[in-house]
Amino acid sequence: MSALTQTEHAELERWIDIIWEKAHELGLDPFPVHFEVAPAHVIYELGAYALPARFSHWTYGRDYHVQKTMYEYGVSKIYELVFNADPSQAFLLDVNDMLSHKLVIAHVYGHSDFFKHNMTFRHTNRQMIERCRLHAERIRQYEMKHGPAEVESLLDALLSIDEHIDPIIEQPKAQEKKKEARKSETSYDDLIYMVDPKPETPVDKDRFPASPQKDLLLFIRDHSKVLEDWQRDVVEIVREEMLYFVPQIKTKIMNEGWASFWHERILENLPLTAEEHLQFRRMHSSVLQPGSRTSMNPYYVGYKIFRSIERRWNGEEADDPEENWMGERIDRPTGEGMSKIFEVREAENDQSFLHKYLTSNLVKELDLYTYRIEEREGELVWVVDETDWRKVRNALAEQLTNFGVPIITVEDGDYEHRGELYLRHHYDGKPLDMARTSRCLRSIAQLWGRPVRLETVADDEEIVIICDGQSVTHIAK
Amino acid sequence: MGVSDPWLSADSWDLHRRAEKDRLRHNDKIKEVIKENLGDLVSHQDIITADDGKIVKIPIRGLELPHIRFDPHGKKGVGQGQGNTKPGDVIGRSGQPGEGAGKQAGTEPGVDFYEAEFTIEEIAEMVFEDLHLPNLRDKGTKDILSDQVRFDTLARRGPQSNLDRKRTLINAYKRNAAQGAPGWNIEDEDKRFKSWEIVPEKQKNAVILAMRDVSGSMGEFEAYICRSFYYWMLRFLKKKYASADIVFITCHTEAKEVDEHEFFAAGDSGGTRLSVAYRLAIEVIEKRFNPREWNIYPFMFSDGYNWGDSEVVEYMKKLVDYSNLVGYGEIANDLWGQAGALAPLGQSLNDAFGEDGRVVIVKIANKEDVWPALKLFFSNHKEVASL
Q1: Which site from A116, A186, A370, B56 is most exposed, i.e. has the minimal number of CB atoms within 10 Å?
Q2: Which of A152, A367, A372 minimises the CB distance to B76?
Q3: Half-sphere exposure of residue A3: CA atoms within 13 angstroms, side-chain side
């Protein structure tokens, strides 16, 4: 049973309409949003599964348990959940008071507007919630037919490497149709290829694949020596869902910043009582707390940058210039703050957003810094390294390359004509976590059915990690 | 359901318990990890001396799914302070005092650390899950233990976790259809809960003869191992075979039947003559436990310092003929402790019964061997024809 009375339900409906009107009046254009009032356990369950009715896996059960515990102990509060779909699906916590609902509804419209307009989301499947339900059903049938242990072992292996996909080659049909159109979009290519490096090796017909491939899951699906048809279907399910999630990972800071910016702007324009206004301010600042000393709060950073872009492009803070990718100062017309932030929300992802719009003043105000880890007298110590704004900005943007995940490409699917898989880690000065990488190589070998090699750099030496399915060995390259 | 109103709905979520299944699977996986480490737990002093309700915290690693990641210690990161952070400021350290011992690992970015809490009871259940009295036969008619719980009846009320979803949905569908509005709308009256009944299960007569060497050569380590083995054995028997009889016998140059308390407390001096313990065991069996009516399990723990006692093998032969299984555990000492070599007594028993499926001889050289010994004694052995 819902905790809402009929009167509350009617009032909530009225505010959903009012806030929808206000959002449009202020310039937002979200998808229609279907709100659902639900108890906490449903909301933290949805949070753990990331999509309603998604397939079962013990890691989601673990995350659900953690969220449930944190909620019950009052460590974390959940206000809202919203899914990228058309119409968007959002969930309101049934025990929240009316003002919290108002803030959450405004925040949700911000997210939905972002989903609809940001270019990173252009190819996402807006019917993913239904797709997921079908995926879950197929996986349930495979469990019945092949046994839950068999399915779990397959999912364990796949979910370990699910980030190694290539959003650029998704939906080849749509891409073919848009070939002409894409040519005119070259202004984004630098961004795309900064995140997903352009294949540099020329196409070689004798090689397989002809050029290095970033979509490891796709390669396994199409060329694995051991997978049966149903297992290939599960590979595709995991890949498809991950393709849906990647844009959210790539725009976390922007998306949360945008929603926070708009919940504030909308609530400022609603007829609130003085007491409600005070409460709204308190909630707003609790969302926008600085991060921990070894991380940052994406809501806070994203919000601050959007606020600052609006001010700067309105002609304030002329002493805080922005630079383009070449390090050249950008000319800023005045009075264009509002149109500028709409342009930014459409065209950027977190990496380009931070690189272009994180300025000297912002780094100082947000107290961002880089740190390094040192060993001192047998213990590890985290030490602040740089506070120079360019270095901090570059470090942040660089951290977001490939959404923070090491880039791995398939170099050879028939290594030395033995059917082995040869992978390469695109090393950029940061070594891999060897223990975890070794475990992942076992997963890849399990899926591939033959030994797997991964070329990387450890202790400044080029090495190859070889996994024959069980044991893992390192050799110098 | 809010179909008529697409913008705001408030469904009944009572039946929504999908994540519970995956949570339970995660719990099972934690238990699997713990079972792999039972060797450490079983011989742990704290556990043997703890009360049932006591909670033991067990650190668990490896329940994360691995991902290819950068070495958390090999790179720089970006952080956020409260203002005025300067280069050189120390913002965190591993093993920081005051962080609390259990939290240290968690302060290191990138290290997944999970602490599971279990009661002694729960650990005992995991220990016993795979143990049982081997070669147990139908002998006599004495009803012992085991109220088996059968989850096969349905009730109209019960805890939410026992909801029979399929039955509930069928009821709801039928009722809605009968009321002229087919659909899945669920009312309280549709709900059915799985319930249980207690079915007493008839078990077989069994007697365990627990014997231990309490001679002067049994040092602190030997006594500890002996006690921890018997601690688990008793718990196991009381849990799974509640009305099995247990006879306690201690022995140096003389053997005597004692009660449980005395058995565990015993520590003595003097020489060893295990044959007297075996002789006493045979007397007890002949007087009180007719092998045709009883499943009989004699166990002996000794350090094997037992010379010139040729009668042991003779008595043992008789004991083996009476018993379902005879166990002999030799606890290693300095002299014989290396490379699995047995002391003279163990050696002579091994020579005589090494091929006999009714005899299990184990050697315990360190604490971690207690668990494998328990598993070896209380697992299925080859069926023995002469029983």
Answers
A1: A186
A2: A372
A3: 11
Strands (E) located in B69-205: 77-80, 90-93, 114-119, 147-155, 193-200
Binary contact (B22, A60; C-beta < 8 A): yes
Chunked in runs of 10, what are the mean pLDDT values of chain A (477 residues)?
Answer: 77 95 97 93 89 92 84 73 94 91 96 97 93 95 95 97 85 45 44 48 70 95 96 97 96 96 96 94 90 85 96 89 82 90 97 94 94 84 92 92 94 94 94 93 96 95 94 91
Question: In chain B, positions 94-133, which contact chain A (CB-CB < 8 Å)?
Answer: 94-95, 108-110
* Inter-chain touch A290–B81, beta carbons under 8 Å: yes
CB nearest A371 (choices: B9, B20, B79) = B79
With cut-offs at 50, 70 and 90, classify the pLDDT of residue B125: confident
pTM of the complete model: 0.74
Provide, rounded to the nearest whole percent, the portion of chain B with pLDDT above 70.
Answer: 73
Pick the CATH number of B204-379 from 3.40.50.410, 3.40.1180.10, 3.40.50.1000, 3.10.20.30: 3.40.50.410
Contact B69 A33 (CB under 8 A): no
Which chain A residues are within 8 Å of B22, Cβ to Cβ? 56-58, 60-62, 64
The ranges of chain B annotated as CATH 3.40.50.410 are 204-379
ipTM of the complex: 0.87
Residue partners of A323: CB distance under 8 A and separation at least 6:
A329, A330, A356
Distance from the A372 Cα atom to the nearest Cα atom in chain B, whole angstroms: 5
State the pLDDT at residue B106.
Answer: 33
Smallest Cβ–Cβ distance between A294 and the set B10, B13, B92 belongs to B92
Q: Do A369 and B82 touch (CB under 8 A)?
A: no
As given in the structure block, the two tokens for residue A55 are 């397939």
Best residue in A11, A132, A436 for a mutation probing chain B (most B CBs within 10 Å): A436
pLDDT above 70 (res B113): no
Q: Find residue B210's DSSP bridge partners.
A: B248, B299
What span, in angstroms and rounded, lies between the C-alpha atoms of B215 and B162? 55
